[in-house]
Amino acid sequence: MNSCTGRRPRIMASSSSLPQNTITDILSRLPVKSLTRFKSVSKNWADLTSNPAFIAAHIRRSSPDPYLLIRRYHSQSGWDYGIWLITDPTLNFGTQLLRTPLEQSLPRFPKIVGSVDGLVCLDISPCYASDFVMWNPGTKQFKRLPLPLISSTRDNPIWMVFHGFGFDSFNNDYKLVRIVSFRGNDASPFLRVEVYSWREGVWKEIEERFELALLCGGQDGVVVDGSLNWSAIGLQRFSDRKVVISFDMGREVFKTVPLPPVTRYGNVKVVSYMGLLAVAVYPLVFAASGNNMNRFEFWVLSDCEDGTKRWTNLVVVENFSKSLVPVGTWRDRELVFKYMGARDRENQSSIFLFDPVDQRTRRLAIDCVDFCFEGFSYVESLVPVN
Q1: CA-to-CA distance for 10 and 20, rounded, in angstroms?
Q2: Contact at 8 Å (CB) between 166 and 249?
Q3: Alpha carbons 357 and 335: distance in angstroms, whole number
Q4: Is residue 58 within 8 Å of residue 382, measured between CB atoms?
């Protein structure tokens, strides 16, 4: 008994007196920066935070509240570029300019291929998507990947390259897919496909191909429920519409998903929405008379009670501006739009969020009017690059 106050002295519990489940639960709620510091404080904590089960639990805590990772550069000059991390675009957010790996020695500013579970895949090659870096901005780890197997030669030059980066939950692996298109003897290109495995650390070429479609240029694969997806122009029996080419990362096979007929008359942006494959259809800037739509439509590939899938139209906005272009989704439930037109007044926002459910629009205080812009959801994690 304390003779002055009459109170018992407080006894602070050490971490060793707490149940292991309690310690794990507490640590799984902390930011990566704190957990990285703790690795040097306690060997037990270092071992715990390197455990795959703990890393997965930490990701589950972080996933519902992702940051916005943006890459932008000045459209005219090509300069004033950078990759920014924005903690919450809708509030008084914090903005952090990230230091990109190998930035000073690169021939051009890196392109983001994809962002999954805290791993960001960068394309650092000058052309043909032939050099990649795996990067974890939270832990500041990065790894330059082995060069791909498929390359361009004088006799067989590469025409176009498409890629995507995602998580294969079936094999607990992160995969980078590279689709290389060569000009064939006829009108259709010849394709070769290779996959890099994070778990194995090597590239392999696969025999799997897809037919009856031509991939549309200037797009990266969109991750939806274990698959990577690209929009394409349908051929032969699909010639009356556009399609999605979907690559199952677990089975490493392609399938063709026909899109709604309305996609013939507009631009198509493939996105993930609430874990489902979705497409935003919006007006073409230039189109032949009578062949252009003047509205925005948002379609989702929904599951039916009989086990089949069906396209459902969630949103139609008539007289839609050609100056608004969808660039992706944030938190997997709000569409991100970029305003491409002339700015009406100083400091006008050029990035918008649109909720397809209540059709609410919010402006973001990010000035990208004069910039090329790409946006990705990002969560901090302890996933190693090796």
Answers
A1: 23
A2: yes
A3: 11
A4: yes
Which amino acid, 101? P
Helix (H, G, I), strand (E, B) or coil at 122: strand
- Cβ-in-10-Å burial (0-12, 13-18, 19+) of 188 comes to middle
DSSP secondary structure letters along 305-361: TTS-EEEEEEEEESS--TTEEEEEEETTTEEEEEE-S--SSTT---EEEE-TTT--E
Cα 255 → chain centroid: 21
Please state, in angstroms and rounded to a whole number, the distance separating the CA atoms of residues 377 and 112: 12
Q: Rounded CA gap, 324 and 5, in Å?
A: 69
- How far apart (Å, rounded) are the C-alpha atoms in residues 251 and 248? 6
Contact criterion met (CB below 8 Å) for 327 and 336: yes
pLDDT tens across 251-268, in order? Answer: 999 999 999 988 888 889
- Rounded to whole angstroms, the Cα distance separating 192 from 52 reads 34
Backbone angles phi, psi at 233, to 5 degrees: -95, 125
Angle 145-168-231 (CA atoms, 0-180°, nearest 5)? 85
Quickly count: other Cβ atoms within 10 Å of residue 82's Cβ.
15
What does the chain come to in residues? 386
Distance CA 241, CA 263 (A): 6
Q: How far is CA 285 from CA 49, 239, 343, 350, in A?
A: 50, 22, 18, 18
Report whether 173 contacts 197 (CB < 8 A): yes
**pLDDT tens digits along 106-161:** 777 889 999 999 999 999 998 889 999 999 999 999 999 999 999 988 888 898 99
Task: Tell me the one-letter amino acid at 239.
Answer: S
- Confidence band, pLDDT 50/70/90 cuts, at residue 12: very low
Give the type of residue at 129. Answer: A
Phi/psi for 104 (5° steps) reads -70, -25
Kindly give the residue spans of alpha helices, DSSP state H, lying in the chain: 20-27, 32-38, 43-49, 52-62
Backbone φ, ψ for residue 185 (5° rounding): -75, -25
What is the reported pTM? 0.87
The one-letter amino acid code at 158 reads: I
- Which DSSP state fits 189? P
Q: For residues 201 and 321, what is the distance between their CA atoms, to the nearest angstrom? A: 46
